[in-house]
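We emphasize that the prediction below concerns an isolated chain of 71 residues; any contacts that depend on oligomerization or on bound cofactors are therefore not represented. The input was used exactly as deposited, without trimming of termini.
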Amino acid sequence: MRKALLANDTALAAWNDITPLARNEFICWVEDAKQETTRERRIRRTQEELEEGKRRPCCWPGCKHRERNGK
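Result of the prediction step, given as a token string:
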């Protein structure tokens, strides 16, 4: 994902503008994929969503390791 962001100035600028929690959600969303092809597709989608100004992964409930009550 780092290589993909460094190769895309617009996505990188958006990445640097979002919160650490939002970055973590994108990372977890990509890493949650079981297959490499899915991870690669999610990396491309992350770039696209950042370029569109989205600040969180679309259609994803959140990181499994974070409890829903905020603790």
